[in-house]
Amino acid sequence: MLQKRQFHVHSFNCIMCEGNVLETRDHVFFHCKFAKSCWQYLWPDFSAKQNAHANVIHFKEELRVPFHLEIMVLCAWSIWKTRNDFIFNNITPSFYRCRRLFKEELNLVFHRSKKKKYVNFETLISHFR
């Protein structure tokens, strides 16, 4: 979006990758080497699809729980926060930091949720501990 709006920034390349890869939504959240390692923590057989929509559909089919979207959003949020901490706070990105952020957010969602709607959510949380 910044490039389309003609913002002048140092580079439009992904800061999480070592190569010259344009930072797009699909790349940052699904195709980047760092993002893939985060997703594989949640879903060991993860392989990125062409775009975000295809990834959402595939994740829903694989996970088969009513709260699949919450899990996807939390993982994407954790990746985004890790990336931004690197850019704005000079905190070296690490898979373990991203995982910790994911677990903290997941736990907060569980405590705010209606227990009837999120059956098996507690089991899922214990899987990530």
UniProtKB/TrEMBL annotation:
Question: Residues in domain Reverse transcriptase zinc-binding?
Answer: 2-39
Pfam families, sorted: zf-RVT
Q: Which InterPro entries match?
A: RVT-Znf
Name the UniProt record assigns to this protein: Reverse transcriptase zinc-binding domain-containing protein
Organism listed in the record: Brachypodium distachyon (Purple false brome)
